[in-house]
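Thread: quick sanity check before group meeting

JM: Hey all, I'm pulling together slides for Thursday and realized we never actually wrote out the predicted structure for the chain we discussed last week. Dropping the sequence here so it's in one place. If anyone has concerns about the input, flag it before I start.
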Amino acid sequence: MGEEYKIYDRVVSTQQRIYFDITPNGQYLVSGGTDGYVRIWDLKNECENPITLKASSDCTNGVR
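JM (edit): ok, ran it. Output follows.
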């Protein structure tokens, strides 16, 4: 049987690339957005609402 996939929402209103990453332990998915926020989803606990952190007044297109 195949794996289950979900799509998580983030704010992207540009053609600029917005990167994401998954932590080495596979627990968190982290992504930036054009609204300057970084969003963190807890994948192991299937949290639908991300933790949001205001990182910039401009686009946050990459996280590490």
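AS: nice. The chain has a mean pLDDT of 83. Residues 20-54 form one domain.
JM: adding both to the slides.
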